Amino acid sequence: MGNGISGGGSLGGGHGNMGISLSLLPENEKFFGLENFGNTCYCNSILQVLYFCLPFRTHLLTHVQHKGLAKKKLDVKDKSLLDCMAELFHKISIQKKAVGYVTPKTFVTRLQRDNEMFRGPMHQDAHEFLNYVLNAMCDQVESELKAAAGLSSPQSSVPPSPTSPSSASPSPYKTWVHEIFEGILTNETKCLGCGTITCREESFLDLSVEIDPHTSLTSCLKKFGATETLAGNDKFFCDTCDGLQNAQKRMHVKRIPHVLAVHLKRFKYMEETQSFEKLFHRILFPAELKLPTVLLFGVVIHIGNGTDHGHYVSMIRCQDTWVCFDDESVQMVDDDMLEHCVGRGNTEDRTNTATGYLLFYHLIE
After folding, report:
1. What angle do CA 92, 94, 95 make, to 5 degrees?
2. To bridge 141 with a disulfide, which of 175, 227, 240, 289 should be the other Cys (CB 3.0-4.6 Å)?
3. Ranges for the USP domain (predicted)?
């Protein structure tokens, strides 16, 4: 079993079937690490979560069959990022062994061709990568839908920005990516002058929440939906009153997606230092949330002290067992391992820099 996550960012350092007992894991499932190309742990951790997001994986494997990618030998320049991810997932799914590791070189090459942010040795943010790749998948699936209908070319010429908002595309084309990850927020504003309530809906592919010391994800979500008073310089322009008025504003989740991705905002800009700093606040995240009911199946963990360096690993729940993917290394970990990744209090061990950063829940219907 796992021996803990060290501050240095390693869960063992071995390759392949390190600490895996197949009798405790789903039959016919594959557990493969991914080679790190120097600074691609941010990419590997997200790819592992997406692979174990079963509806997402199923659609990608169908994509391989539909386009005949397994039989074609195309150059990377002739493949989309969607094609490359689908090929990677197919490569893992057909392995004869249950445990090992593969190289995602083609995917990483395509990613770096598409966007210069992911080139070079710089440390990247896993949340920004998740945001980028989901929007890229939406755009590319949409392009293929339009091409099939004879409406446009099959490939979008402008890839999405890696720092664009994590809201879903306003396009009328709803892709299978939207069906899995898209939720709906309602922004509700009540004028305190006339009582008129204005509602505006917006979609999201992941939910970013502010965090406070010594709290829980449940409390963070309640704060996310708390009522805010707009007054002074922040008054609300009411169309009914035809003027600026004091108002109350709140945001609430109208529709939970099939897979809820929650981003804990652990990196905060500090005015006094003119830089981003990591927040090590202790944030408990339960195995189950009542939103309606969603169950935790994946956690991306950031290990390190700052925003421009560190390491990412992912924890995936398979049946009743947690498996840690640390680049090429794969190992089972104790059920209480996540307790070491919730953050720390002021008096706790400051050498433990592992903190939950991205949480993935699937909806129980």
Report:
1. 70
2. 175
3. 32-364
Three-state secondary structure string covering the chain: CCCCCCCCCCCCCCCEECCCCHHHCCCCCCEEEECCCCCCHHHHHHHHHHHCCHHHHHHHHHHHHHHCCCCCCCCHHHCCHHHHHHHHHHHHHCCCCCEEEECCHHHHHHHHHHCHHHCCCCCCCHHHHHHHHHHHHHHHHHHHHHHHCCCCCCCCCCCCCCCCCCCCCCCCCCCHHHHHHCEEEEEEEEECCCCCEEEEEEEECCEEECCCCCEEHHHHHHHHCCCEEECHHHCEEECCCCEEECEEEEEEEEECCCEEEEEECCEEEECCCCEEEECCCCEECCCEEECCEEEEEEEEEEECCCCCCCEEEEEEEECCEEEEEECCEEEEECHHHHHHHECCCCCCCCCCCEEEEEEEEEECC
How far apart are alpha carbons 306 and 7 in whole angstroms?
12
Q: Taking CA 225 as the corner, what is the angle to CA 224 and CA 228, rounded to the nearest 5 degrees?
A: 95
Structure confidence at residue 8 (pLDDT): 39
* Strand-pair partners of 190: 197, 248
Indicate the residue type of 314: S
CA atoms lying within 13 Å on the CB side of residue 122: 11
Question: β-pairing, 197-204 with 236-238?
Answer: unpaired
Structure tokens that stand for 196 in this block: 């008129």
User: Please, are residues 314 and 325 in contact by the beta-carbon 8 Å criterion?
Assistant: yes
Residues with a known catalytic role: 41, 311
Count of CB atoms within 10 A of residue 352's CB? 17
Burial class of 226 by CB neighbour count within 10 A (0 to 12, 13 to 18, 19+): exposed
Residue entry with tokens 């794969």: 330
Q: Among all chains, which residue has been given the structure tokens 């709290």?
A: 215
Give percent above pLDDT 70 in the chain.
88
Reported as a single tens digit per residue, the pLDDT across 168-207 is 545 567 899 999 999 999 999 999 999 999 999 999 999 9
Chain mean position to CA 80: 20
